[in-house]
Design a protein that fits this description.
The protein is mostly helical and about 70 residues long. Helix content is about 70%, strand content about 5%. The chain has helices spanning about 5-20, 25-45, 55-65; strands at about 5, 55.
Length: about 70
């Protein structure tokens, strides 16, 4: 598994959330968009140095435990 810079993950999730927010006709897309935004907040809080590299899948699993 490759590490990815936090800043890249944040940008990717914000872009996806923006696209999903434009299609809010679907409840599922709205929930996905909100989850992406919560994940971005989690990343910013836990990784203030957004140049740091992380294992995205591992960090996402940690977020899911925290987000419940």
């Amino acid at each position: 598994m490759d590490k990815v810079r936090v800043s890249l993950v944040i940008q990717s999730h914000l872009s996806d959330a923006m696209i999903e927010a434009q299609c809010l006709q679907s409840q599922r897309l709205m929930e996905q968009s909100q989850e992406r935004l919560r994940f971005v907040k989690f990343l910013i809080h836990h990784y203030p140095d957004t140049d740091k590299e992380i294992l995205v899948d591992f960090v996402y699993e940690q977020f899911k435990k925290f987000d419940k």
